Amino acid sequence: MTFVSTTLTTELLLHRAGTKSYWRGLTYRDAVLSLRVHSRHVTARVRGSDDAAYAVELSWSGTHLVGTCSCPHGLEGFFCKHCVAVGLVLLDRGQTVPPPDAEDVELKDVLRALPADVLRDLLYEQAAGDLKLRARIMSAR
C-alpha cells in the first residue's frame, strides 16, 4: 500500500516555488492581509511590492499542492512568493490546506438553505451537460 500525503510543509513550499520565490515569500509573511481556511481550500489577500492586494488560493489536486495568485508571476502559472507567504502563515498558525476529500460543510449549508425549485434548476443545468451526473439522476428514480 502506498501512502499519499497532503501535508503542508516548508519543504513542500520550497519545492513548489523554487529557491528564489521561496526566499522572497519568507519576507512576505507580514504582507498577508487576510486568510480564510475553507472546507477544501484556503483563500487569502496578500499585499504586493506595488501595494496592490493579490488574491491567493491554495488547494490540493490529489497530492499536488496547487497555488494560484492574481499577481503577474502567478497569472503566468507559477507558484509565487505570495502563495509561499500564505503557506508559511498557515504553518505559523498551526493550520494547513484542507485535504481535497474533506467534507464540504460550507456547500452543504448553502444547499440546505436553497429553495427546492432553485436546487432543481441548478441540478438540471449541471446534469444537462454532464452525462455521468445525468445517468446517476436517472438511475435514482
Helix and strand run: HHEEEEHHHHH
Roughly how much helix do the residues carry, as a percent range? 40-55%
Major sheet summary line? 4 strands, antiparallel
What is the count of DSSP helices, taking H or I runs of 4+ residues? 7
Low-pLDDT sequence parts? none
What sort of overall outline do the alpha carbons produce when their principal axes are compared? elongated
Q: What oligomeric state do these chains adopt?
A: single chain
Cα distance, first to last residue?
Answer: 38 Å
Number of strands: 4
Strand order of the largest sheet: 1-2-3-4
The share of residues in extended strands comes to 15-25%
Q: Radius of gyration in whole Å, from Cα?
A: 18 Å
Describe this structure in words.
By secondary structure, the chain is an alpha+beta fold. The chain is built from 7 helices and 4 strands. A 4-stranded antiparallel beta sheet has the order 1-2-3-4. A hairpin with a 5-residue loop joins strand 2 (41-47) and strand 3 (53-61). Helix 1 (10-17) crosses helix 2 and helix 1 (10-17) packs antiparallel against helix 4 (81-92).
Quick description:
The chain has about 140 residues and is α+β, with helices and mostly antiparallel strands. The protein is built from seven helices and four strands, in the order H-H-E-E-E-E-H-H-H-H-H. It is elongated, with a radius of gyration of 18 Å.
